[in-house]
TrEMBL record:
Keywords: Membrane, Transmembrane, Transmembrane helix. This is Uncharacterized protein. The chain crosses the membrane at residues 6-29, 50-73, 79-103. It comes from the Bacteria. It comes from Pseudoduganella armeniaca.
Length: 118
């Protein structure tokens, strides 16, 4: 089986840590949902938009938390259950910082913009 070799072999033995980080993603979803109810009525989006956003968050946040933990485990890092929960809670911030760093790096290597000739 393909999970028996390479970095994938760490995943079945640590499925409990992945489950804990998925739970952290659901906790983060609950915090986002609570944040919605704390907003003033003038600051809220239309109901349809919230349904779409929260449905996406309900799926994406736990998957993101579990994926980040799986990546750490495949890298050979040792995680405790509390650290797996923390990764599940902070995985959106981790991914956001990785995207910003990649964009910043790409902007430095991009070709300069030509000025208009006068």
């Amino acid at each position: 089986m393909w999970l028996d070799a390479g970095p994938w072999s760490a995943l079945p033995a640590n499925a409990h840590l992945i489950a804990i980080s998925v739970f952290g993603g659901y906790v983060l979803f609950g915090l986002k949902l609570a944040e919605h109810f704390m907003r003033a009525a003038a600051d809220k989006m239309p109901l349809r938009r919230y349904v779409v956003c929260f449905t996406a968050l309900f799926v994406v946040l736990p998957v993101l938390g579990g994926s980040m933990t799986a990546i750490y485990l495949m890298n050979g890092d040792k995680l405790s259950p509390i650290l797996a929960l923390q990764v599940g809670l902070t995985s959106p911030a981790i991914v956001q910082s990785l995207i910003i760093a990649a964009a910043h790096s790409m902007s430095k290597t991009a070709a300069p913009v030509a000025r208009a000739t006068q």
